[in-house]
Amino acid sequence: MDIYIKVKNFGPIEKAEIDLRPLTVFVGESNTGKTYLAALIYALHKHFGGIPQFPWADFVASHFSFLYRSRDGYPQSQREALEQDILEALEKLNTPERPFKFSDLPQQITTRSQSILTDQEGFPDELIRCFDFETVSKLIRFTGSQDNPMKVSLSVREGNQKYWDFEMQAAGSAKPTITGHINPDMTLLAPNDARRKTELHEIPDVERLFRTLHARRWRSSDSYYLPAARSGIMQSLGVIKLSLIKRTTRIGLDRLESSTFSGMIADFLEWVISYTEIGTSSSSIRRAAEQLETDLLEGRIEVKRSTPEAYSEFLYRPDQGKETLRMSHASAMVSELAPLVYLLQGIIGPGDLIIIEEPESHLHPGAQTKIAQTLARLVRAGVRVLITTHSNYLLQQIGNLIREGELQKLGESTSESADYLRKEEVGAWQFYKNEPVTELPFDLVEGIEPEDHLDIAEDLYNQSAGLQNRIEQTKASDAVESE
Question: Could you give the CA distance from residue 383 to residue 405 in angstroms, rounded to a whole number?
Answer without folding.
Answer: 17
